[in-house]
User: Fold this.
Amino acid sequence: MADNIRRPHFANPPVVEVACGVQFDGLEEWRTPHYGQFWSTIQNDYPETEDHPPLALLRLDPAPAVFEPKLSLLPPLRRVFFINRAGNFLIQVQQNRLYNNWRKVNDSDEYPRFDAAYQRFTSTWAQFEEFLSKSNLPSPRRDVWELTYINHILDSQAHFPRDVWDYLNFYERSPQATTAMEAIGMTIQFSWPLTDNMGTLLLDVKHGNRITDQKEILVVELTARGPAKSPMEPWFKVAHDAIVNTFEKLTTARAHKLWGKS
Assistant:
């Protein structure tokens, strides 16, 4: 079966966060009070809020760009999280970006699968557009689709980066320096084109310690980005298939057994 159709299933995937999002422009009239007004329309489902710095502009062109400086008397508007009671689902809104995230809060939290995360995103986007219309704000011009999967690989017997290749299969072992000692740090990034010029798939691998308990983890992040000229549903299907199939291809049989692949 073709890679863009088949989809492996993991009973216990190492996914800790999934984010579906869109970058847009045309909302120069968005102001601080609009955050509160939008919150009033979703507060029953997302009663908690957090303020965060805004995300930088996404660019699909890998070449460095030259921007004309823009002078403003106002600081950049914040990014606001609207969070459900359990803390697992949240909405991120800033002047040019909207995301729906699922995240693992406790080790016992079960990943609800992509369809649940994606349906929340489409529902939120529809609510957001309706809010803008009722507030006499312009309809946003969609620019970039984005889908991100963050995986934390955790094994009490593993030490990273030494044991990374027990879980990832695209190298046999880590390189050694002239000191003949084991590496103490690693960061890897790859990118590939998506099918039919629909964007780019990015892989980031690094290791570190979990904030909650300082346990050693391997972080494997896969992000698909593409121009929003593609319709939403077909683009996210291509992106999801690319992420899941690439994750399967880049991980070992030992890891698949640990995660209950079928």
